[in-house]
Amino acid sequence: MAMEGRLNWTFELSNGTTARGLSASEKAQVGGFVAVIVLGIALNLTVILLVVFKKVPKKNTIVFIVNMAVADMSSLLLEPTYSINSIISPSSRWFGLDFVSSALCKAYIVLLNSVTWVSLITLLIISLERLKEVSSVVQLNTLSRRSLALLIAMSWALSFGLHTIFLAKCDAEQIDGSFDCVCLQEMDISIIFLVSNGLYFTLVIAIVVINLVIIRRLVHSQAAIDLPAAQQERRVKKFRSAVRMVLGSLLAYTTCVTPLYIFLSIYHVEFLFKKTLDYNPSEVAVYLFLLLFHVNCVLGPIMYFVFLDDFRHALRSLLWNKKRRSERTRSCNTTSQTIMGEMNEMDEMNQRHAENINEAMENREGINTCSRGTVTVHKNEVKENDEGKSGLARQLRNTNDATESSEVKTCKKAPVGYTNEAIDTNETEQSILDTAL
């Protein structure tokens, strides 16, 4: 693809940008490019990482798909970012005019136009490999690592070979006071572009025909190959999924890429024949052509996840594990909150229990104090009673002594009536004891 057409039309979309800021249309353009870049890189990087971390088995088709994912990521990192910079800062589209800036300009344009073809050539290689497998009556050995590396290198070499002319025709230049990376509009450039466009449509038709042949031979080869029914079913399922992936990717590719190719073909036909066709698309249409061209890089990984069981199961497992980790995290958080709540309740209960114990201890100390005072009073009362009893006993003994002395005297003086006096004495003693008690 001729780079000058894509760059010039991209610049025309942003030629109204000044230091005053972006218009609503320019903001929409930048937003569209940013969305495509983010989604495309995220999806293609997921495809690559699933294979790198061995979530998907490294089969031949899987390795080729990784090659297409790398090419799509490279495409997203080149032209959309350049277009965003052209819209935001039209006065600084390139670095300068020195040797390094010139070399970067040439490499940038060759790489930009080449990565678009890598996916198409890789789809052709996958289709040819599947055709060879389905056409064989015996099971073929898988490709060696050397063969895989050679085929992948060939997809890039052919893509670069188609666009090496840009190394001589493109360079960094100063236009209207600003640096830019442009390609000269010459006859040979337009011819090469139209030839490459013809080759593009030829490859698309070839891939469609090859996959239709695969489907036909797959149906007729089931009876020819002597395999168990279960193994034949797995074989048919594998080939059908691969064919669907190739055709789905090809449909997405042609739908997204063809409008821009047709537009640029008209541009070069006008230059070759020095005629102006009655075709003047609006700036919005040109922007949509360019944006749709890169939407293909977003749709590619979606086709892999939809049509290939290995990628679909790996993605489902990844999302399921992520969901389980999220649920486990929420469960742990809920459990932690429950435990913390229970611990707080236990702390409150322990605090209330400690307060009750302290209150009980204070009450017990008050009771013990009162008890000690009561016991002391009782002891004093008993002591006083004992002392009273001792006094009464001494009084009783004194009385008895006095009585005995009196009785002796009485007995000596008057023996008659002794019995009655003794009785009176006993009654008196009993009365004193009763009083003491």
UniProtKB/TrEMBL annotation:
Keywords from the UniProt entry: Cell membrane, G-protein coupled receptor, Membrane, Receptor, Transducer, Transmembrane, Transmembrane helix
Pfam families: 7tm_1 (PF00001)
Chief location category: membrane
Positions of the G-protein coupled receptors family 1 profile domain: 43-304
Stored InterPro entries: GPCR_Rhodpsn, GPCR_Rhodpsn_7TM
Entry membrane topology: Multi-pass membrane protein
Residue segments, region Disordered: 380-408
GO cellular component: neuron projection; plasma membrane
Biased composition (Polar residues): 396-405
GO molecular function, one term: G protein-coupled receptor activity
PANTHER family named among the record's database cross-references: ALLATOSTATIN C RECEPTOR 1-RELATED, NEUROPEPTIDES RECEPTOR
Protein's recorded name: G-protein coupled receptors family 1 profile domain-containing protein
Species: Nematostella vectensis
